[in-house]
Amino acid sequence: MHDLGPNALYCGHGPELTEDPGAVLEYYLAHRAFREHQLLAVLGRGPAGVDALVAEIYAEVPRAVWPAAAQSTRATLDKLLAEGRVEETGDDTVRLA
Q: Tell me, what's the pLDDT at 5?
């Protein structure tokens, strides 16, 4: 999407973003990469489930946001699973592949 040079972004929530949409996309991509790095760092210490990952990575975020953080974490883990970077252990946890 970034390469298409959009004039606006219409997100699922919030206002239409028309001021420098490319910068917004770059921020989102960098933020997702940062969360991936955090997940991989925690998993480098051993297998963990979504709840444990959220509790550690989002410790400074209000707990009311944790359900959304869990959904985001699951989505990121699905991406990492598809890439072969993590693997399921069979007990609702994942570990580095």
A: 77
- Closest to 26 (Cα-Cα) out of 9, 38, 42, 12: 9
Q: What is the dihedral of CA 62, 68, 70, 71, to 10 degrees?
A: -170
Q: What is the CATH number of the domain that holds 91?
A: 1.10.10.10
Say what the pTM is.
0.82
pLDDT for the residue 14: 75
- Which residues have CB under 8 Å from 83's CB, separation 6+? none
How many C-alpha atoms does 37 have within 13 Å on its Cβ side?
6
Give the number of domains in the chain. 1
Q: How far apart are CA 94 and CA 89, in angstroms?
A: 5
